[in-house]
Amino acid sequence: MKEKRQAKILEIINQEAIETQEQLLRELEKAGFPTTQSTVSRDIKELGLGKSPSGGRLVYMQVQDQLGYSLTDRMMRTLRNALLSVDYAGNFVVLKTFEGGAHAAAAALDKLQYEEIMGTIAGDNTILVIVRDESMTKTVAERLQQMMER
Q: Which of 25, 93, 107, 116 has the maximum number of C-beta atoms within 10 A of its C-beta?
């Protein structure tokens, strides 16, 4: 049942501009899939859905980055466009951004939910990325460098 419901969710969001979970619940019910808000919320997360601009509104879409992590296209562009340099030492990665770009870029990076990253701290043009284990720092830095270069 879960697979059919999730397939129906993807069909619905591809055919209609769905802005809220409540709207999605109503459409699922119309299609013969009565469910709860908490189930729809879990489905949204499992399917990698995010909200992206469409026709002046934010609507649900299935979006993932090249590594398979859920992230809206807008957030990915924000991160890519903001990054100017990547450096690392110990279990820290330091990202430089344009002036005022660190907060938006850090929020986008947090959305990636890389399990190697414990968290980020953003200033005006600098982001401190705290990596769980020093052995993973170089890999995280290289991944961010590649993202910046695309």
A: 93
Secondary structure letter of residue 24 according to DSSP: H
Q: How confident is the model over 11-36, as pLDDT tens digits?
A: 899 888 999 999 999 999 999 999 99
Domain ranges of the chain: 2-62, 73-149
Q: How far is CA 77 from the centre of its chain?
A: 11
Residue 67 amino acid letter: L
**pTM of the predicted model as reported, rounded to 2 decimal places:** 0.55
CA distances from 146 to 11, 46, 55, 64 (A): 33, 26, 31, 16
Residues facing 52 on adjacent strands: 59
**Rounded distance between C-alpha atoms, residue 91 and residue 8, angstroms:** 43
C-alpha 4: how far from its chain's center?
Answer: 24
